[in-house]
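Aggregate trends can hide what the representation actually does to any particular protein. This step matters because it turns folding into a mapping between discrete strings. For completeness, the protein is quoted in full, as a sequence line and a line of structure tokens:
=====
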Amino acid sequence: MNSFLEIDRPYVIAEIGGNHEGDMDFARKLLLDAAEAGADAVKFQAYSPDKIVNKLQDPERHQHFGKFTLSLEQYRELAEMCVEVEVDFMASVWDMGAFRFLDPLIAVHKIGSGDLTNYRLLKPMAETGKPICIATAMADMEEVLAAVAFVRDVNPAIVESGGLCVMHCVAMYGDPRDEYANLAAIDALAAALPPQVVVGYSDHTLGNVAVKVAVERGARVIETHFTDDNSRDFRDHHFAHTKEELNDFVVYLRRRQEMLGRAVKVPVFEVETSDRIAEFRRAVYLRRDCLAGTVVSEDLLTTLRPLRGISASEYFKVVGKVASRDLVAYEPLDWGDFK
């Protein structure tokens, strides 16, 4: 995929992230679950604690990230699994070494919210020419527009082709209240960004409501965290979609696309046949017999189903006409019956 505009429905990313908790077997299971649920892409977070956190300044967080690490070779295996099950492999890469190793395997790049201003990493991603998703939690519009301008300066083709997605996101980790979602910001992004930039949504709420609302507000890329059990201890499991929830969302997207149809108002002739239209529509009928030469007044007329003869829309054109022959009540009328 070179552009998010190539697909006819929103692109769905199952964010496994660190929910594998450093267990390769668990990572494999979650990948297969996400693929079976219908995700377009499965995303991980490829990091090492030494490349993301200053262990002298924040030793506790450094230790935390160390528990959720897989090796780059393990990510290669996961990328190969993605090919086998026909989903795109994605990984947020948080340092240049991981970027150089994983770039050949990655279908769509992702810049996490924490790296929105990390132009050192954003530049080589833009230079690849691959589609990029940029999350915007904790950012204001000025920062968002600056990042978009930076990508455009590095590689204008990504923006012009629809390969750049800016994702509304709120860092509500540990406190996923509905009022924090601020989904109306999707409208603000769409209004402020260049028209070729695709707007998306990275979800941290509970359930399927926010992702559906985001789609209806125009989000064309949806990222949602993924788990097999919301009751697991690690925080990111708590607001993640399960296989069943993700599949429900994907089915919704597919049915939605089928239901949208075309932006033209005409009968759906596959079901709204001429016979059905005639059955539902009304025609002008005489309420009683009348002789030739009778001037037709409203008290002689009615409109009834089915539509045979003169349409009810022509009712007032019949009023005042003169019968050219003897006419029988409730028989279909023709303009030749009048003069």
The chain has two domains: 4-260, 274-337. Strands lie at 11-17, 41-46, 88-93, 109-111, 132-135, 164-168, 198-203, 221-225, 283-286, 301-304.
